[in-house]
Amino acid sequence: MTEPWPTTGLDPVRRLHVLAAGIRGARVTEAYVDAPFTRVWALLGDLEGGFGQVVPDMERLRVVERRGERVEALTRSKYGPRARLRGVQRPGWCWLQSRFLLIGVAAAPEGAGTRVAFTGGVRVPSRAALVPVGVRREGRRSVERLTALL
Question: What Cα–Cα distance (Å) separates residue 91 from each residue in 57, 97, 108, 109?
Answer without folding.
Answer: 23, 18, 9, 11
